[in-house]
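ok, trying the design again with the full structure, not the truncated one.
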C-alpha cells in the first residue's frame, strides 16, 4: 500500500526562508497580521486531514468509481467520499482564503495553495469536488451581481454547495466559439438554457444539497464566434430569494464518462432542458467572466500534478531504499544482504532525483504565483498590483503545462523504479500515472498553453512582460555573479537568460512572416521558458541553503537542497539546448508533409 507524508518542511522553507511571504504580507493591509506560526499551524492540520482522511480513499475510490442511477440521474461517488467531504466542510477548509464578507477566513492564497497541493497528493479525484467550487467562487466574486453574491457565495464559501464549470460540448473543446447551447430570456429576468455539455468534472453527486453550474451559452441574437458567448449560473435545484432550495431544475447528468483515470470524480455529460439560470456579467461577455475561473483552474491543474509528483516520489524513494536487486557497480554496499538496495544504482537515483527536482521546483513556482495573486488583489500600490498581475499571467501557462508535463515524466519515472511491481495496482504507482495524464489535457491542452505563452503573453506585447521577469532573474545574477559557490547554478541560468531574448526575437520575426512558425515552436518554447523559471527558483533555493550551511547550520535538509539543485542544473536544465535547436528548425518539416500523412 502507498504512503504519504505532507512535505511541511519544504513548504516552510520556500515560504519563510526563500520567498519570505510574511514580509510581503506586511505590505498588504488585508494580510499584514498573518504570521509564520499561523500559516504553519493551518498547514499542519491540513496535512493531517489529507493524509488521514482523503489519502486512504484514493485506491478504493479509483477501484469503485462513481455510479449513475439512470432513472433519477443521481450520481453516487465512491464509498467514504461523502463522509470525507462532510469533515472537510466541518473543518472550515473550504473557507480558508475566501472573503470574510461571505463567511470566509480571509487567509492568503499562499495558504490555500499548500493545502490543495497536499489534498492533490492524497486524492486528486476527491479534491476536484471542492477545487472546482473554489473556481466558481472566484468567478462569482469577480463578476456576480450583488444579489447573486449574497445568495450563492456564502454557500460556496462554507462548502455546503459545490460548483462546476460547463464549457465543453460534444463538437467543440477548446474552440468555444463553436458552442451551441442556447439561453432564451424570460419575462422575469431569468433565462432558460437548452443544450449539452460534456466532460464536466464533479458534474453530479450527492455530497452536497445543491450544485451551482456556471454554464456558457448563446443568447438568441448573439454574434457568431467567441464574441457571442454569455455566462449563466444554473443551480441543480432552484433557489428562492431567501436561499431556500426549491424544485429540481432542468439540468441533469445524462451519463458518466469511462476514463483512463480520476475514476473517483464524476465526469458528467450534462443535459440542459429548459434549465433556469441567471446571467453572470454582461451579455456576450461570458468568456471574460469565465476566464477568472479558467485561470484559477489552470493554476489548480498545475497543482494537481505537483501533488502527484510529490506522492509518487515519496513512494519510489521508500521502495528504492528497501528493494534489493544486484550489486552496486562500484562494489558491494550492503554486505549483510544477498543484494544491494536499488537506490545504489545511478539510473535509479536519476529517476528519483528527477521527481524530487520537479516537485520542489514546482512547489517554489506555485507558491510564488499565489503570492503574486495576493499582491495583485490586495497591494495598496496600483503599479505593484499591475506588475504582479502581468507576471502571474505570464507564468500561468507555464504552471499549467510545465508542471503537468513534468508530472508525466516524474510519475512514469517513479513507476519505473518499482519495476514490474509498479505496473501492479496494489502499489498505487500506476494510478498516479493514469490520474496525472488528464492534467496535460483539460483546462486547455498543453499545446494551447504553449500557444498562449508564446503568441499572446510574450509576442503579444513584444516581450515586455518577459523582460520584467528577466529583470528579476538579472537581479539574482548580479547579486551572486561573483560568488564561486553559486557559479554552477548562476552561470547556466545567466547563459539561458541571455539566450532567451535572442531566441524569442528570432521566433517572433519568423512568426510575423508565417504564423505556422509560432505553432511549430510553441511547445518547445514553453519548455525552455519553464526551465528558465525553474532555474531561477532552484538558484534561489541553493542560495538560501548555502547561506545556512555557511552560517554553521548542520541540518541535512540544506545539504539535500544543494545536492538536488546541483542535479537539476547538471541533468535536467541542459534539455534547453536541444529544445531551442528543435524550435529553430522551423515549420517546414511539420507542414510540408502531405504525402507522409496521406
Amino acid at each position: 500500500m502507498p504512503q504519504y507524508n505532507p512535505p511541511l518542511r519544504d513548504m516552510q522553507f520556500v515560504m519563510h526562508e526563500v520567498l519570505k511571504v510574511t514580509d510581503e504580507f506586511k505590505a498588504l493591509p488585508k494580510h499584514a497580521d498573518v504570521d509564520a506560526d499561523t500559516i504553519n499551524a493551518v498547514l499542519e492540520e491540513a496535512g493531517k486531514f489529507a493524509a488521514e482522511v482523503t489519502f486512504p480513499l484514493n485506491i478504493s475510490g479509483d477501484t469503485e468509481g462513481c455510479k449513475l442511477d439512470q432513472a433519477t440521474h443521481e450520481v453516487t461517488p465512491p464509498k467514504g467520499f461523502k463522509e470525507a467531504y462532510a469533515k472537510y466542510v466541518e473543518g472550515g477548509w473550504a473557507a480558508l482564503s475566501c472573503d470574510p464578507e461571505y463567511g470566509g477566513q480571509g487567509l492568503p492564497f499562499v495558504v490555500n495553495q499548500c493545502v490543495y497541493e497536499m489534498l492533490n497528493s492524497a486524492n486528486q479525484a476527491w479534491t476536484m469536488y471542492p477545487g472546482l467550487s473554489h473556481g466558481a467562487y472566484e468567478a462569482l466574486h469577480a463578476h456576480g451581481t450583488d444579489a447573486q453574491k449574497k445568495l450563492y457565495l456564502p454557500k460556496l464559501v462554507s462548502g455546503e454547495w459545490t460548483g462546476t464549470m460547463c464549457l465543453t460540448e460534444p463538437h467543440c473543446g477548446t474552440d468555444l466559439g463553436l458552442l451551441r447551447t442556447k439561453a432564451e430570456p424570460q419575462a422575469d429576468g431569468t433565462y432558460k438554457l437548452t443544450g449539452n455539455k460534456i466532460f464536466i468534472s464533479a458534474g453530479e453527486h450527492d455530497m452536497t444539497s445543491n450544485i451551482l453550474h456556471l454554464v456558457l451559452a448563446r443568447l438568441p441574437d448573439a454574434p457568431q464566434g467567441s464574441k457571442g458567448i454569455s455566462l449563466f449560473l444554473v443551480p441543480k435545484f432552484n433557489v428562492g430569494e431567501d436561499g431556500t432550495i426549491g424544485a429540481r431544475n432542468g439540468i441533469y447528468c445524462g451519463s458518466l464518462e469511462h476514463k483512463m483515470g480520476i475514476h473517483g470524480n464524476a465526469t458528467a455529460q450534462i443535459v440542459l432542458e429548459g434549465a433556469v439560470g441567471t446571467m453572470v456579467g454582461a451579455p456576450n461577455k461570458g468568456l471574460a467572466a469565465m476566464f477568472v475561473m479558467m485561470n484559477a483552474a489552470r493554476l489548480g491543474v498545475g497543482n494537481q500534478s505537483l501533488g502527484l509528483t510529490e506522492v509518487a516520489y515519496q513512494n519510489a524513494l521508500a521502495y528504492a531504499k528497501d528493494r534489493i536487486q544486484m550489486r552496486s557497480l562500484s562494489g558491494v554496499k550492503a554486505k549483510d544482504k544477498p543484494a544491494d538496495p536499488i537506490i545504489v544504482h545511478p539510473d535509479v537515483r536519476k529517476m528519483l532525483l528527477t521527481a524530487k527536482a520537479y516537485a520542489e521546483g514546482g512547489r517554489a513556482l506555485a507558491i510564488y504565483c499565489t503570492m503574486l495573486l495576493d499582491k495583485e488583489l490586495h497591494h495598496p500600490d496600483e503599479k505593484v498590483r499591475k506588475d504582479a498581475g502581468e507576471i502571474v499571467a505570464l507564468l500561468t501557462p507555464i504552471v499549467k503545462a510545465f508542471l503537468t508535463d513534468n508530472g508525466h515524466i516524474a510519475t512514469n519515472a517513479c513507476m519505473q523504479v518499482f519495476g514490474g511491481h509498479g505496473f501492479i495496482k496494489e502499489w498505487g504507482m500506476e494510478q498516479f500515472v493514469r490520474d496525472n495524464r488528464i492534467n496535460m489535457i483539460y483546462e486547455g491542452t498543453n499545446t494551447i498553453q504553449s500557444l498562449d505563452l508564446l503568441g499572446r503573453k510574450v509576442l503579444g506585447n513584444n516581450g515586455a512582460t518577459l523582460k520584467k521577469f528577466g529583470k528579476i532573474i538579472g537581479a539574482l545574477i548580479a547579486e551572486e555573479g561573483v560568488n564561486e559557490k553559486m557559479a554552477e547554478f548562476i552561470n547556466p541560468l545567466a547563459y539561458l537568460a541571455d539566450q532567451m531574448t535572442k531566441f524569442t526575437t528570432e521566433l517572433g520575426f519568423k512568426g510575423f512572416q508565417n504564423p505556422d512558425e509560432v505553432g511549430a515552436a510553441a511547445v518547445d518554447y514553453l519548455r525552455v521558458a519553464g526551465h528558465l523559471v525553474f532555474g531561477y527558483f532552484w538558484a534561489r533555493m541553493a542560495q538560501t541553503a548555502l547561506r545556512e550551511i555557511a552560517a554553521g547550520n548542520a541540518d541535512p535538509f540544506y545539504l539535500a537542497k544543494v545536492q538536488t539543485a546541483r542535479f537539476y542544473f547538471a541533468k535536467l536544465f541542459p534539455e534547453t539546448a536541444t529544445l531551442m535547436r528543435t524550435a529553430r528548425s522551423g515549420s517546414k518539416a511539420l507542414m510540408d508533409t502531405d504525402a507522409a500523412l496521406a
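Keeping the full-length input from now on. The radius of gyration is 24 Å.
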